[in-house]
Amino acid sequence: MSKNASECTKAGTQRLSGYIPIGFAVAAVFLAPFIASKFDAFGTSVIRTLIFFTALLFLIAWKSTEIRVLPNRIIPILSAILLLMGVASLCTLTCIHTTLMAVLDLAAFLTILLLIASLSERDIYMVLASLLVSAVLVAVIGVREYLLSPATDWRIFSTFFNPDFLAGFTALMLPLALAWYLSESALIATTTTAISVLALTGALLLTGSRFGLLAAVIGLAAFCISAMSTRAFRKAQKRRVLTIILPLVLVILGAKGPILGRVTSTQTQSHSGSFRIATWEGTLRMAKSHPLFGTGLGTFELAYPEYADVGFTKLAHNSYLQLAAEAGLASPIVLLLLIGSGVLTIAHSLQSSRGQSSCDASTFHTWQPNRSLILSGIIGSIAASCARNLIDSDWYVASIAISFAVILGAGLAHAPRKRWASANTVLRGSLVCAYLSLTVVCLVITLAIILEKQGDALLASGDFKKALNAYQTALRLDPLNPEYRKDLSQLHAIRSAKTGEMNDLYIAERYMKSAIKIQPTCARNYYQLGKIYELANKDEQALKAFEQALKRDPHALPALLAEAKLYERTSQMKHALAVYRRMVEIENSQYEKIRAMPEFIEPSYAFAHYALGLDYERRGDCQLARKEFQKALERIKAYKNSLKVVGPILEASGRRDYWLESELENITQEISKRLKPGHL
Q1: What pTM value is reported for the model?
Q2: Any idea what DSSP says for residue 307?
Q3: For 117-133, b where at least 16 C-beta lie within 10 A, e where not — what string?
Q4: Bridge-partner residues for 419, per DSSP?
Q5: Where exactly are the structural domains of the chain?
């Protein structure tokens, strides 16, 4: 009796240890759209750590879980090749830390792909369900955002960095949600998935993204073709389609504002298309300049300005081109082979399900979807995301990359596979050590990020000592991160400005120089170094630093403006005016006219027009002086109007410059005096 009880206890413990890894996988997938959608280092690091820890748990408790052998051996091989290409891009030294973080992200995405592909069908449906519930909540948050906005054409962000990425996420999830809804599962599953379809459709339209809508249409078309080819679309599915049509029409009518405004706006369409094309051309030049290893995975923002002909962009608006520029021309080919191999495996599984009833014994009256329909939905989701990434860099958003990897892995998991009955001890031990190390490293990185955030809050409150300790501890934990060195440089520069202590400026200079060694291609680093030199009255070194910034980014307006003002302060008016004229040239070029965010008006050109107006005034050319002053006022007025739209966005990202706005007010007052009758 006691022996049986012991065996039951052991079996129960074993089952529990098998559920724990699944629970962590579900948690990682559910949380990703909420905390890893805004290029926030903390959120991405948390999800990355959670994925590695989940893999570690699966390896430790592999006997208690229903892990299966991967259905296609080429998948892990291509995954390893892609990861090695990312590692090889480290040799470019654009920024070691940035590339290391991007390689860790790539490792996390590939890990979740292979992990989900190894699960049983029962377990993958739990993971997919958590992803779908998460997507619905994200969509609901977006709809609420729209309802609270006074503007009828407001484009929603929800938990994402911008509306376009939210559109990419909803386009990815919509075919999956529709497939689950059509599966004739239990009432609660039907209700949930119907709400999912309606919420995701509404959110997609409210993003105002034309390319997002197009990607969704492509995904839904791929889903319908796949479902019909396997005879999974029967009378029951037609009834469900008819049931949801009326609510869907009401949602479309209620959410048509943003997308209709964008579709009917010829100017917006022209600008968006022109900006993307020009960005792709610049990215292609960047890729051709670094054909073997690229500039380093994740370094697009740092390396691209040298090749840019149009306004600043953080991403290339094309994942394939961006990957080619960052990791070598062969890397997108390997990625496409990986995805293509996965799709072929899924298509084979779909054909084996041909003719399967949509209400078979394994799915009827349960929460699980029909096998043929969900596989068709997965193909639709993959098609939608692949299409979206031709016109945007969705896979560079951690939550979208993770969701795509989960969906692709879930499709692979439907292939016939054997249970992983035995494991090579050396291989398993090596993987345990690798994932344990990755988990610890990512935990340390996350802790450093937390300390930096604490340091930022303490610095804002004026507690220099505690902020200094927080930044220094973060730097000790993650010594390759240049941001912590910049934080320390900024702290010492601010403290020097308040106390007049010159030693702080020398320390600030030292930290900034060490940041430049790690991140030598970033123009902003040299600009910050130049500002430190200015505070230390090292004018010659400051000018050299600004020149270095402009060498890396010829259109860097902060560096141009700082250089011009420094020339003015040192009575080198000829050089100052040359810089101001260069700024006006940029203003009249396509760099300024074609930008990622046309709603935002760049105010820096007002300083150039004001300075040129003063020069004409000194030379007695009142007509040209008045003309330049008017241009400055028009620029300032347009900037103030743009703040009504982009002000909250700039504040949320910490990019709103109140000092610059006060300087613009001073210019406005000075120009108003000069434009009074009788002055000019």
Answers
A1: 0.90
A2: G
A3: bbbbeebbbbbbbbbbe
A4: 68
A5: 2-418, 599-680
